[in-house]
Amino acid sequence: MRERLHGRSGWVIALLVGVLAFAITVQWRQAEEADDFSGVRGAELAELLRSLDATNARLTQQIDDLRASRDDLRDSNESTAEAREAAIRRANALAILAGTVGAEGPGIEISITAPPGAVTASVLLDAVQEMRDAGAEVIAINGVARVVASTWFLDDDAGVRVSGRVLKPPYVMEVIGDPDTLADAVTFRGGLADRVESRGGTVEIEKRRQIQVTAVADAPEHQYARPASED
Question: At what angle do helices 179-187 and 121-133 cross, to 10 degrees?
Fold first, then answer.
């Protein structure tokens, strides 16, 4: 009986020793594979994790803020570009209206041939008004006189004086606008063609896809204004 007990005890002891040795071996291997936080206490590890979570949250917020700033800058740049383009278009339109720059576009060319003195300042002025009523955007006469809001017409012995320039017949009007509408405005009953023909002249109309006007309006002479001093 005692020998059996001793035998069983020895077997149990041997088993416990083996299990303990195995546990020690596993712990030793885990210790080798563990990272630098293996020796940190539970409370310290929890605090470290909370700190990492807070840092991650701050970084995430910073990323979101940077993305928002990038989007705002992109929208601002696009808005600025659109505003700049709109301002440029507006400036170009005003420059064309004022006649300070050349212009090009579809339109018609009107050639007026008549006996000397038949085409007066009044006839040309009426022709200009009819073209404007038909939607003309740019008008030039004989390639040198740009017609703008301040342009005036006056009869002259040599022809017609247009804002200081004396134009002689034949008169050629370059008009930028819708070709069909402008042509109809010339040929309607009682219009420019009828008036010129009643005076013994002829009017020819040529519709063109592209008309280039290089004439610009004369700069007005200022009576009182002068450039400001730069000092």
Answer: 140
